[in-house]
Amino acid sequence: MAGSTLRVASVPFVSRDGDCAHNAAQIAACLVDVAREGIALAVFPELCLSGYTDTAKLSRASLDALAEPLDGASIRTVAAAVQRTGVACGVGLIERAPDGRLFNSYVMCLQDGARHCHRKLHAAEHRRIVSGDRHTVFDTGWGVRIGILTGGDSYLVENVRMTALLGASVLIAPHRSGRASRTGEHPLQPLPMMYRSPVDTDTMESMHGWLCARAADNGMFIVFSDGREASNDQATDAAAVIVDPSGLVLATSGTSGAYAAANLDLASIERSRGRQWLAARRPDLYALLAQSAADRSREYDEPPNASARGSVALGFAVVSRHRLMR
């Protein structure tokens, strides 16, 4: 970091399924490489430590064996590498909470030893993986607040806006796309079963358009990193994307599969249209959203003192512009 600039990298990491120790060691080695390029923050994909693209069919025993506590061996390996290299790092894993529940979690390890964990809000990976219950936003020594939304969390407009309203000006968006189709396209993640449509046809191409729109709407940088299954060792140009507060793409990983890196001009956040739009909001108009559907509908019913006196009956007819002239 120099002045008001933060140099970040989005790493489209290819994990080895079920081998947390190997993946943690590879991430630690990657931090050594990016440190030489002056990177202050490296963002790795969702579930990059556990490695599975599809966990839905894992047995109970396999899932339990894969899960780790937040102070487990894998996070300790990554945190130690952060201390050695001076590069902050975000990694994903299946977390085993002290009460035994399992979460799709993303942990940010900072240079000062602090760790921040986001539990995915819309978990749909396995019936035993529980959804988180809060947004994650925190302060950093770089003078910016960072928010985290994992995978499908960032599909929902409200989640990104809520993160911005909590003060985040840099959004970390780790992701793990589904297995490639015959055409080579990677589908978006499914939502929990109760919300799914009969046919999901959206692919990662549409996802990146959404990211640019969310960045511009909220005046924030977005650092997106997508994971791939081990059998697909050719990363695509969509695997890592960094977007600025005006919605412009600053960097992608390119077809070589290398990481994407960019200098974030932190001063551009407050100059962005998105920040002006946030300041112009009318929160007093939003109280309606907290009411039940029935109460909401009554807000727009005819006022109780309204009268038909003085009203004029109107009739309407629709006439085509292309009538034949006689």
Automatic annotation (TrEMBL):
Give the GO molecular function terms. Answer: hydrolase activity
**Domain of life the protein comes from:** Bacteria
Transmembrane residues, as ranges?
none
The cross-references to SUPFAM superfamilies, in alphabetical order and at most eight, read:
Carbon-nitrogen hydrolase
Q: Alphabetically list the UniProt keywords.
A: Hydrolase
Signal peptide interval: none
Q: Which parts of the sequence belong to the CN hydrolase domain? A: 6-266
Tell me if Hydrolase is a UniProt keyword of this record: yes
A Pfam entry, by short name: CN_hydrolase
* Name by which UniProt lists this protein: Predicted amidohydrolase
Protein species of origin: Paraburkholderia megapolitana
